[in-house]
Amino acid sequence: QWAMFGSILGPGASSTVTKLTLGQGPRVLLAAGDNDAQDVDLFVMDQDDNVVAKDDRPDAGAVVGVDGKAGDVSGIRFQNARSRGLSLVLAAMLKVLPKPVEYEGWRPGRSMRDSMVRLLGPAAEITQKTGLGFHETPYLGAFLQTNGFSFLATTLTAGETYAFLGAGNEAARDVDIFIEDESGRVVGKDDKPNATPVVVFTPARTGRYTLKLKLADAQAPCFCGMALLRKGGWNIPVGNLDAAMDNMLRCCEQVASRYAAKFLDVPGEWAVIGTILTQGHSTSLSDIRLGTGRRVFTSGGDTATRDIDLRLSEEGPAPRVLVEDKRSDSAPVVEYPAADQKRYRLQIDDADSNGGTLIMTALLDVD
After folding, report:
1. Which residues 6+ apart lie within 8 Å of 100 measured at CB?
2. CA 115 from centroid of its chain's CA atoms
3. Is 71 left (phi over 0), alpha (psi -120 to 50) or beta?
4. Sign of the C-alpha dihedral, residues 32, 35, 36, 39?
5. From CA 113, how far away is CA 335, in angstroms rounded?
6. How far apart (Å, rounded) are the C-alpha atoms in residues 188 and 148?
7. Is 356 left (phi over 0), alpha (psi -120 to 50) or beta?
8. Mean pLDDT by 10 residues, the chain (367 residues)
9. CB neighbours of 239 closer than 8 A, spacing ≥ 6?
């Protein structure tokens, strides 16, 4: 089923599209012309070619909303009712999605959503045009002050191609990415004055590299994020990324209804981590600094997620479990009073899922 149709029409001419399949649920149909179009009309027809809805007002755009069962609408006719000559007229069919959660009661959630949306488009475009997919840690987010940064030390394989993308919420003016080798030498960067940096990097040797995301300039402190891609990585539909983000933010909203919650903002540390796991497997975030005060950790997954468990331990040769959530649900929450001089390890378990699943985990300051 095509989603958009275009015709070059003279004044008074029309174009009809039949045998449409709109499916079930609310839809919006619209038509508009180029600069020569002065009046564009749109008519929606049923299976018997009867007009069931229309917009024939004398203006250059037409919008019709329909909400019915599959098969109720079978065709559309869009007309160049009046123009200064030949005009290109486009008609589009849109599916109306449920209104997204706005997180009005917890403003950091809106900033995080804004920064992540700015990452999704470029990341999806790169995965479509190249052989790159998402890294096992596909997303990292942090609340940054101007000139502040967060970093991740990870192993990169020689000869493999990676791509790292950054973005902040709307207040960000300049976001930079730096890649450093084990000696601290910068081997890749995008420090140009832009808010959406991209670094494509193929390491000459296998080793530990540090990925740094920096907020170089902004109107105010920002939530910034980084997407990690690699050759032959995971193919994550944008809808899965969106679902995991929404579910995690709903959990954060629940915490924020009980506490004055904010994203963890310990310098250098991440506040949101995305991980891709398969059923029965886990990942651990080690050597985390949490500062001093009460901290809450909560996760949300995509549509394949059934059960997520969280376990917080004190870092050391034999990590001691401090608190865990092993309930059979997909919205775990653990809470612990952290001490500044200590380091912690957070383990995320995919206890049950329908195949590979994306889990996003937030670290919150509720003190």
Report:
1. 113, 246
2. 8
3. left
4. positive
5. 24
6. 19
7. beta
8. 92 93 85 94 90 90 82 88 95 78 64 86 82 92 94 94 94 96 96 94 96 96 94 85 90 88 92 95 93 96 95 88 96 95 95 93 92
9. 303
Six token digits for residue 165: 């993308």
In the sheet that 37-45 helps form, which strands lie side by side, from edge to edge? 14-17, 75-83, 37-45, 51-55
What is the rounded distance in angstroms from the CA atom of residue 42 to the CA atom of residue 17? 11
- Tell me the C-alpha to C-alpha distance, in Å, between residue 53 and each of 6, 12, 47, 167: 20, 20, 13, 42
Residues 6 or more apart from 330 whose CB is under 8 A from it?
247, 299, 300, 301, 305, 306, 307, 308
Write the pLDDT tens digit of every residue in 273-309. Answer: 999 999 999 999 999 999 999 999 999 999 999 999 9
What letter does residue 100 receive in the DSSP assignment? P
End-to-end CA distance of the chain: 52
Non-local CB neighbours of 38 within 8 Å, separated by 6+ positions = 60, 82, 83, 84
Nearest to 276 by CA among 162, 356, 361, 362: 356
List % helix, strand, coil for the chain (3-state, nearest 5): 10, 55, 35
Residues 288-297, buried b or exposed e (16+ Cβ, 10 A)?
bbbeeeebbb
Tell me how far apart the alpha carbons of residues 251 and 242 are, in angstroms, rounded to a whole number: 14
Q: Is 107 helix (H, G, I), strand (E, B) or coil?
A: helix
Place of tokens 């009661």: 105
